[in-house]
Amino acid sequence: MDKEYVGFAALPNQLHRKSVKKGFDFTLMVAGESGLGKSTLINSLFLTNLYEDRQVPEASARLTQTLTIERRGVEIEEGGIKVKLTLVDTPGFGDSVDCSDCWLPVVHFIEEQFEQYLRDESGLNRKNIQDSRVHCCLYFISPFGRGLRPLDVAFLRAVHEKVNIIPVIGKADALMPKETQALKQKIREQLKEEEINIYQFPECDSDEDEDFKRQDAEMKGSIPFAVVGSCEVVRDGGTRPVRGRRYSWGTVEVENPHHCDFLNLRRMLVQTHLQDLKEVTHDLLYEGYRARCLQSLARPGARDRASRSKLSRQSATEIPLPMLPLAETEKLIREKDEELRRMQEMLEKMQAQMQQSQAQGEQSDAL
Amino acid sequence: MSKGLPETRTDTAMSELVPEPRPKPAVPMKPVSINSNLLGYIGIDTIIEQMRKKTMKTGFDFNIMVVGQSGLGKSTLVNTLFKSQVSRKASSWNREEKIPKTVEIKAIGHVIEEGGVKMKLTVIDTPGFGDQINNENCWEPIEKYINEQYEKFLKEEVNIARKKRIPDTRVHCCLYFISPTGHSLRPLDLEFMKHLSKVVNIIPVIAKADTMTLEEKSEFKQRVRKELEVNGIEFYPQKEFDEDLEDKTENDKIRQESMPFAVVGSDKEYQVNGKRVLGRKTPWGIIEVENLNHCEFALLRDFVIRTHLQDLKEVTHNIHYETYRAKRLNDNGGLPPGEGLLGTVLPPVPATPCPTAE
């Protein structure tokens, strides 16, 4: 037997087995105007029928609709691994004639999840914390516009430092290849111009092989992903059945990399970066929220910036952060502090008065 | 102008310039019967040829407005319709092009000639419509523009010394571009059409229809038609203006089956089966603009240009303009609008015939 063999090289396997037993949970938010193929894409990505029974309201009903946040959960199992997927939908976004501030409910929702986690983390029973934080937001951009619209920019600026954003061009089969490239280019430029931070894919390790690196670079270069979704399988007599959309002039194949970036998105979102999205949410975005929150508690009224570099930029549409509701004990401590301060002030005043009367007394003595 | 020939009941404009309102016969006409006892050939039927010659000489105006969010292919479609670069495409990927903060109205005129007939085409673009975060009342500048053109025409009409040919800048047709969401109309679409269908002929059009499969297209169209009906929006051809049974059946078919037209526009040509066709080339096939199996562009083109062009102008003149005129005169207490058009005060337009009291 190998005497030098300690055995911790098997640690990853242990972790793996543990997490497989525990299962994963992942919260994905989809946002964007209605009619961009969001629901179809989700169904295609996860091969589910999450949106089977939805009713799309008519235009006149939407005149006065405000944005609502809907959550749907589904458990997916593959290869023995269970994923509890929660989908957060934002019906009503961008629909009204006046969409001012229509992103505020979304921002509040995201922060509420952070707040909940912060409370759970600071609480006593931490064994079964449910992580309902939004790990990723797929933002759908219209293929019919000329890049980001004012509403897109406003939404992205409001959420980019609170959630991982992956921009996606919906219904990309509306575009010819050249148009797709030009649109992507325009969007990338606009994102840079407006200083919007989308989710950054981590760099490849230097020891990965060339093929992987090339694939990785190609995937990064195709952001925003131009996607097409479909829940239908097309059987064109002769060729094998594919998921796609059949038109009179041809069939778009969802999983054909020459037709759209669906495969890239799926690979990236589900196969390679699911865990990283969760980590970034926890290590970067949540920590930033936590730091902001606690600092504003310690110094009420002061608005401090978080120390992390990514979050040191103040977004133009930042709204006042919600104050963490104080637990009873913390409240008491605060009150006691206040009392002490007041008593100290009074003492100082009395001392000053005494000194004054002493001085006066000496003066009158001298006279 | 009149050579003593009576105007026939099937009234088509004697002059192409300003179609005159149908005259109300003072004495009801006896039913016209074909006199099969003509001793010879009179030549009345050459009237058609004479009118045609006149039209060719004078040409005619046509003003078309396009409304819709940016990026829906409005300019491309108009260029495809008239087979020429009559609309400057907002250069799609130009960095300096910013979305205007308010709706602008840009009217550009061109003269197109075909088969000896000249058309002075004016394309009125409305950049900025529907592109802001808050789009409340973004149709107001458009409504204002349309009414201004009616006002201009009215002023010319009430002049003492009128021009032989009043320049017609009134909007004859408004193409409204619906985004192909596949769900239903957007609240903004409803609001716009509710306000404007009473002042101008609106033809709703589903833009970029190459994103919908056949089933999706027909479902969407059905839903849109129903929504328009439920909201009382009358698009052109309006039911109430159908003149006779023939019109009604023809227009019913268009209203209930074809409209709104699902179109695709393109200014690029590709080789398909040995022919050069206008289309869009994608990795999964070539979409031919003029192929009825692919989209309804040809239907729209035939409808607007080949069959209903004259009718669009007539409805604009006889109905929308007259409505505006009546309202203006009523508001003014029966007086023509504006004072001192030529520096003089005009005599009031009598509501009922009465001897002038001067």
UniProtKB/TrEMBL annotation, chain A:
Residue ranges of domain Septin-type G in the record: 22-296
Residues with site note (Important for dimerization): F144
GO CC terms in record: centrosome; meiotic spindle; midbody
Annotated Low complexity bias: 350-367
Subcellular localization(s) per the UniProt record: Cytoplasm, Cytoskeleton, Microtubule organizing center, Centrosome; Midbody
Keywords linked to the UniProt accession: Cell cycle, Cell division, Cytoplasm, Cytoskeleton, GTP-binding, Nucleotide-binding, Phosphoprotein
Transmembrane regions: none
Renumbered residue ranges of the record's region Disordered: 348-367
Pfam families, per database record: Septin
A biological-process GO annotation: cell division
GO function terms (MF aspect): GTP binding; identical protein binding
Matches recorded under InterPro entries: G_SEPTIN_dom (IPR030379), P-loop_NTPase (IPR027417), Septin (IPR016491)
Main subcellular localisation: cytoplasm
Protein role: Filament-forming cytoskeletal GTPase. May play a role in cytokinesis.
Assembly and interaction partners: Septins polymerize into heterooligomeric protein complexes that form filaments, and can associate with cellular membranes, actin filaments and microtubules. GTPase activity is required for filament formation. Interacts with AURKB.
Family designation: Belongs to the TRAFAC class TrmE-Era-EngA-EngB-Septin-like GTPase superfamily. Septin GTPase family.
Annotated protein name in UniProt: Septin
Source organism (scientific name): Sciurus vulgaris (Eurasian red squirrel)
Lineage, broadest ranks: Eukaryota, Metazoa, Chordata, Craniata, Vertebrata
UniProtKB/TrEMBL annotation, chain B:
Keywords (A to Z) from UniProt: Cytoplasm, Cytoskeleton, GTP-binding, Nucleotide-binding
Family: Belongs to the TRAFAC class TrmE-Era-EngA-EngB-Septin-like GTPase superfamily. Septin GTPase family.
PROSITE patterns: G_SEPTIN
Segments of skewed composition (Basic and acidic residues): 1-10
Region: Disordered, residue numbers: 1-29
A family per Pfam: Septin
Domain Septin-type G: start-end pairs: 58-331
Source organism of the structure: Sciurus vulgaris (Eurasian red squirrel)
A GO CC term assigned to this protein in UniProt: cytoplasm
Record InterPro entries: G_SEPTIN_dom, P-loop_NTPase, Septin, Septin3
Lineage of source species: Eukaryota, Metazoa, Chordata, Craniata, Vertebrata
Any one GO molecular-function label of the UniProt entry: GTP binding
Name by which UniProt lists this protein: Septin
Subunit note: Septins polymerize into heterooligomeric protein complexes that form filaments, and can associate with cellular membranes, actin filaments and microtubules. GTPase activity is required for filament formation.
Cellular compartment(s): Cytoplasm
Chain's role: Filament-forming cytoskeletal GTPase. May play a role in cytokinesis.
Gene3D superfamilies, sorted: P-loop containing nucleotide triphosphate hydrolases
